[in-house]
Amino acid sequence: MTVVVASNNPNKIREIKAILAPLGWEVLSQREAGVHVDPEENGLTFEENSAIKARAVMEASGLAAVADDSGIEVDALCGAPGVHSARYGGDACPDDSARNELLLRNMESVPDGERNARFVSVITMIRPDGSTVSARGELPGKILRQAEGDGGFGYDPLFYIPSEGCTMAQLSPERKNQISHRAEALRRFVEKLMKENEHADK
After folding, report:
1. What are the tens digits of pLDDT across the range 113-136?
2. Which one from 68, 69, 91, 156 is the annotated catalytic residue?
3. What ranges do the domains of the chain cover?
4. What's the Cα-to-Cα distance from 193 to each of 37, 67, 68, 108, rounded to whole Å?
5. Architecture of the domain made up of 2-201
6. 69 an active-site residue?
């Protein structure tokens, strides 16, 4: 089976390819599939944005498309940045470093015991026949007061995982692909696909 990852983010594509590799699928990036679409992500939830991206790429490619919409939700900020994680701060924050700095500024007065957050990922696949499979994964953690680690991307250097004793940016790529919110969403996604196949065989 060939699927197109609805993304031009090389980090995200690499993670999704690595996690889906055991399925034996041919996983293409949008560029590899010759797809040049950039749909407006105007949904109010990760689920809505994930479906918007998957549908646009499926229609452009004629192939099944898998989209991830992910971000970080901070309890002390009423769930922000949420679906706006990649655009947090708008034009004034054009890269990961600037968005991390903005998050730290907005949390300066938040006590250490109230800095809970979670990474969220929703994976959606839409096939050419319109059928959809979707799954959600979450990883709980805390927001530090300064960045630690130089791996990963996005908010990884600020996101401390108590169960691992380090930030997301300090994990090896292999470990990150085992425990991340995206890995959890993809595991649940694969489970749903396997159940679909079981029903189809009956």
Report:
1. 999 999 999 999 999 999 999 999
2. 69
3. 2-201
4. 26, 15, 16, 43
5. Alpha-Beta Complex (3.90)
6. yes
